[in-house]
Amino acid sequence: MLVSLGVLAAVGLAVGLLVPDQKKPTVAVPDQVCQELLPSTHVKPLLPENGEAFEEEKSVNFGVGASKGRGSCDLSAGGSALAISFSRIQDPEYTMDTVARQAEEPGRTPISLGPAAGYLGDYNTWLYAPCPHAKGRGDLLAVKVGVSGVPEIKDRATMEKVAALTADVTRAVAREVEDCEGAGELPDTAPEIG
């Protein structure tokens, strides 16, 4: 009897290991994310197709006209996450020349989008756009997209996906949230990499 139970347990274990897992549920990403400001066109390729359900958390100041100088939006699905944020840099010493120098640091790849420039790192992408303030300050709009649970931003395909999302965020925030003068000069194309 004990031998029979042992054989049954071994067979059950073998069957459990050989039968494929149930397919994880399909991740459904809405068409608009971050308080419905951003199209999810470039979000979807950075998240798994299957796994834990899509969530939008801590979405702050991404609404049209919500200008507060700072905002964040965290998206997750299937074990991967995107941390999207923006801020208005008011320091007159922090200029596009500063950004150009930072983009040349080791481990970074420069990107540009019309008058905006920035760089890709291993897990983060930054894009800076001129966003002058009505009071004469030469502010910069700084947009950051951080990734986790996806491959490092090293291969060309991942670089293109993250850069495209960062460009989407920059255009939307510059035009709809911060109302940056010259936001119309940001092209509706993919950013240049390298």
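The above is record 1. Record 2 follows with the same two-line structure.
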Amino acid sequence: MKGKKLVSLLLAGVVAGSILVASTTTAERVVAQTPMEAATEYYDAYIARDAEGMMFYSKDINYLDEKSREEGYVKDFKTNPTTGYEIVGSKQINSNEVEISVIEKYAGQGYEQSPPLPYKVFKSDNGWKVLVEPLEINTATGEVTKGTPIHQRKYTDN
């Protein structure tokens, strides 16, 4: 009899804990009220390998839909060497758009950080969001240029 009560108590604790974790995670996601809040929340989620957080605080034109976007983020987490970031600049474009520069810090690469990467942060119906566009970095020169969205890339097996 004691064994059954203990199992019931443990199960109730697990269920209650799951509900608490789920509600805490949801409660932590607040609409970004400023461009810097959106950028910080997005990059904190990026470093934490939190796909839901990244999706909440950004619009990413690399993907055709939310399903492929989430799958792409999860796949990227397995090989992404980014361990930190620093927002090194911001410029107000207008009342609905800010341009920021972000340096990404890397581990285990031949280079320790990216050159300043340009991002736009825009005001949406759901607060401020980071616009994630495809970028290409020439690691030899540090030049950053517009890239090709993931959904448009063509791969060949040679």
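Confidence is low (pLDDT under 50) at residues 3-27.
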